[in-house]
């Protein structure tokens, strides 16, 4: 299978079940909502060492937020409810509560509740105020610029983490250009995030290492500088590989993101230096979700 | 939607207790059984069929009371989630007493003690509401603990007395001692408010939409603010009473008065500033 001259390998991305939630962060203006969201999603590229994977899902207009202010939608993924709870408490407490004019709301309506304002309210030292409107409870915590408003809880949902595809290009600049085109297209898809810097990862990993203390190490079969030295998975002529990792609230959302991402990357075509599209997997024995590239792109 | 309709046949001279008449209590009873339900009428026990024409679907969770009058007391008492009562006309005392859920809509006025000891649901009154709305039920220490009472007209005196949670909102004026001894919850008054507002309150919020409103001497002005929770409250009220939208939209910046300092309270009276 080829798209615009770019070979699509007959392979699949292997993904895993995760737990996820969505937060809606609002502020006086979009700039400050983004400051809070960027801080919240900082150091959240991989559960391997960050505890969670998080990123901004999209910008929200005043009409889309509970308090009628500009906002940002953020998705957080973790391996368990317990870890997600811990990450929420730390990240919202240190990054959103602290950000001027911010407010924080749950963005998922169904599922088990995870504490949000329920624990953060204690920062109010007894001066916090509870407000129950309909079925939802909010906490008003007095802070130096007024009040931090936070919904009592958010909801957790089953999700999928680790969808991915690899862009194999002749050189770094071409791989980067194709990745940027893919990410721009994928950011229009709802319910997914690409948690790595700029949505792109250059250090794809394999499970384990020759060093006992490391749970993961470089995916040497996709490193072009090792081509010919190891059992490389790269065709001759590949000079750079970039990976796009996708976490989604549902498998169909990852399907869609993969589809639009690969099609956008292939827009550069073989003439633009893009040689092939592949995907990372562990032989299909570890993750229950398999995203077959050729099936998705049909 | 299927419904069961009770039409009042004559004007009761004195109290007719309707607390036995809720959709949950009538569900799956046959029409003769419903007509035989005993109601307290003064000192006597009377059959429901003596006073009401009964027709409609006996499996309905929606009950309609036609030609209702103020002598019908305790309409919607103990109403539960998933059921509703629509009243065409007025209601008497203790409407929605200890209501737990569901929706009670009244096209006319409601008497004193509406929503006493309420635990959930919505009481929507198109007309006026008497004194003690949302207060403690007989024998209780605290008033309503959840739910909403929305009044299109005026609220009587001592609305929300000792209320613990929930919302009371009035499109018209509120009588004296609104929110007195309030423990928590919210009261919104779009019209004028009588004297002694928030007297003895410990926590909770009273929002007064008229900039001319004044807080009592035991309240301390903390400043003027645009509070982030107000848009949420406004949006919630707009869902309950869409016709209030234009008036609610004027609520923006408020002066915040905290008290009642007389008893160490941290309640708040929020008075709208002129736009």
Brief summary:
The complex is a heterodimer of chains A (298) and B (275). With 298 residues, chain A is an alpha+beta fold. Chain A is built from 6 helices and 17 strands.
Core attributes:
heterodimer; A: 298 residues; alpha+beta; Alpha-Beta Plaits; 15-stranded mixed sheet; two-stranded antiparallel ribbon; 6 helices; 17 strands; 22% helix; B: 275 residues; mainly beta; 2 domains; 13-stranded mixed sheet; two-stranded parallel ribbon; 11% helix
The helix fraction of chain A, in percent, is: 10-25%
Instruction: Let me know the number of strands of chain A.
Output: 17
Q: H/E order of the elements of chain B? A: EEHHEEHEEEEEEEEEEEHHEE
Helix content of chain B: 10-25%
Q: Quote the distance from N terminus to C terminus of chain A.
A: 10 Å
CATH arch. level architecture of the largest domain in chain A: 2-Layer Sandwich
Mean pLDDT of chain B: 94
* Strand content range of chain A: 35-45%
**Radius of gyration based on Cα positions of chain B:** 19 Å
- Any idea what the shape of chain A is? elongated
Taking pLDDT < 50 over at least 5 consecutive residues as the criterion, the unreliable ranges of chain B are none
User: What value does the average pLDDT of chain A take?
Assistant: 96
Major beta sheet summary of chain B: 13 strands, mixed
Question: How would you describe the overall organization of this protein?
Answer:
- The complex is a heterodimer of chains A (298) and B (275).
- Chain A has 298 residues and is an alpha+beta fold.
- Chain A is 22% helix and 36% strand.
- Chain A has two domains: 2-15 and 159-297, 2-Layer Sandwich (Alpha-Beta Plaits); 19-157, Alpha-Beta Plaits (2-Layer Sandwich), CATH 3.30.70.520.
- Chain A has helices spanning 30-40, 81-96, 117-120, 172-186, 251-265, 293-297; strands at 2-3, 6-8, 12-26, 53-60, 71-78, 103-106, 112-115, 129-133, 136-143, 146-151, 153-169, 192-193, 205-207, 216-218, 240-248, 274-278, 289-292.
- In chain A, a hairpin with a 2-residue loop joins β9 and β10 (146-151).
- Chain B folds into two domains: 1-61, no CATH class; 74-272.
- Chain B has five helices and 17 strands.
- In chain B, the strands form three sheets. In chain B, strands 5-1-6-8-9-10-11-12-13-14-17-16-15 form a 13-stranded mixed beta sheet. Chain B has a two-stranded parallel sheet with strand order 2-7. Chain B has a two-stranded antiparallel sheet with strand order 3-4.
- The termini of chain B are far apart.
- The chains are: A alpha+beta (298), B mainly beta (275).
- At the A-B interface, β8 and β10 of A face α4 of B.
